[in-house]
Amino acid sequence: MANLSENLKFMMTEAEISAPKLSQATGIDSSTILTLLRGDGLPSIDTLVKLADYFKCSTDFLLGLKDTTDEATFKPRPPFSEQLTFILRHFNITKYRLEKQTKLSEKTVNRWHNGKTQPNAESLIKLAKYFDCSVDFLLGRV
Fold first, then answer.
1. pLDDT of residue 67
2. Rounded Cα gap, residues 5 and 131, in angstroms
3. CA–CA dist 67, 3 (Å, integer)
4. Which CATH number fits domain 4-63: 1.10.260.40, 3.40.50.2000, 2.60.120.970, 3.40.1190.20?
5. What's the helix, strand, coil split of the chain in %, to 5?
6. How far apart are CA 9 and CA 18, in angstroms?
7. What's the average pLDDT block by block, 10 residues per block, for the chain (142 residues)?
8. CATH number for the segment(s) 80-138
């Protein structure tokens, strides 16, 4: 599987768009796009979703969790706090069990659940693997 940097470069090449033009089109700071292109980090949820929406691809493809782009239109994503409540109910799991089995701190999960913060891309990948689902499902985009 490819990584975010490779997939972002691929999508930009396919769309024939430069980093400055992508920045203008998405409202993502050009320095953030350049950082992602260099492979120097992972995007915030908001940046990840903006890129996926722009390219009409899944967040899973951009993150390198899926090998194909499968162009599609995704639903607007609900606040992560609402989605986390849905996910816990859907998989019939408690916050406590989630914390223990993923080694996420109680504080972190509570901050997500209360809407104070959102998970970073690394945590989303960890959650998707734990629940054996797509990142787009975790985000409520499908």
1. 87
2. 25
3. 10
4. 1.10.260.40
5. 60, 0, 40
6. 10
7. 87 97 97 95 95 94 88 88 97 97 96 97 96 96 93
8. 1.10.260.40
